[in-house]
Amino acid sequence: MRHVDHLLTAYLHRELPPHLRQRVECHTRVCDRCHAALVRERELARLLEAQMPAFGNPRPAQLARLLPGILDAACPNMARGTQAERWRTLPGVGMALLMLVLAIVAPALASPHAPGMAAPSQPAPYLLVATATPGSTDGPVFALASPTAVAQRFETATEPAGLDPLPAPIAATPIQ
Amino acid sequence: MYKAMTDVTHMPDGRDETGVQDLIARCFSGDQMAYAELYHAYAARLYRLAYSILLDVQDAEDVLQEVFIYAFRRLRQYDPVRGAFRTWLYTITVSRCRNMRRRKLLPLVDLGELLNLGQEPAGPAQETPEAALARSDVRDALARALAGLSPRLREAVALRYGQGLTYREMADVLDCPQKTAESRIRLAHAALMEALGPVGETLLEELWGF
Q1: Are residues A55 and B51, on separate chains, in Cβ contact within 8 Å?
Q2: Taking the model in full, what pTM does it have?
Q3: Is residue B119 part of a domain?
Q4: Which domain holds residue B31?
Q5: What is the CA radius of gyration of chain B?
């Protein structure tokens, strides 16, 4: 009588061909040793079938944490859609840049011999003018006056008879 | 090398191989959601496979990342005529686990970490504290016994009991003859019974008694 220990695991897993399966069944009916071995094997298989499918189950958050890195590494051209969005916005950005360049270059192209554009004239600052009235005990009177007004005043002013000419302005140069 | 499971196999979410092919086709068209769907369909079982072989959380996560990066980059190399998609993924996973083992010595297993890892397997709804304790004791004993197996035997147990593969499918994933896959399972059974010993028998009686 040949024992069938070596066939028991495959028998439990239904991996034996029919003739070997029959041999195991016939033998374990009459052999206490192999029957006991079959019982132990069956118990172990039940234990493994019950426990192993859940052995090392990951947490959902654990798997979710790994996904972005995998996608970044495996599919860099589609990294979370940002690349696609960049490509979608590119024509708009390009158009804006083109219009900016045209706005700068177009005037020069339109009249190539035109003089360079002068900087806008800046109004001269107001002048601090000091005048003194003859005979007054007060000091000179300081006032702000526009350069145009000062020039007109000096051009149109007529000296009253018997009076000393107006003194020159204390400060007649533009304030730097 | 992957040949098995050419019949209609089912993804964890119930999608069959046709559904997988549709997903892969969407990946080829640049649909990023399809990549995410493929990941979510297979990540948990591939992680469990890697963890059952390596018994280390960080290593299992590293392998999982390597597997999906490799698979997504070489998706066009997958040939459905040669086998099911999940067989291809299992083959890559086992290969990466072996590489990981080669890169580093298998660390001493922190049993506390090992046993408290992840979600607990769902127990009976009306489980008594005694039954829960018995289940926990069985899991502890099983974890110790698994840690004592050689890596090749642990691969076989993980594929057979963790993933439900047949001997033929195991042989394809492990790249070995079917007889070798069968003998590895038989040797693993013998080693586990010896490791569990009388303690295991008592625990089993307690477990099934509740």
Answers
A1: yes
A2: 0.65
A3: no
A4: 1-108
A5: 18
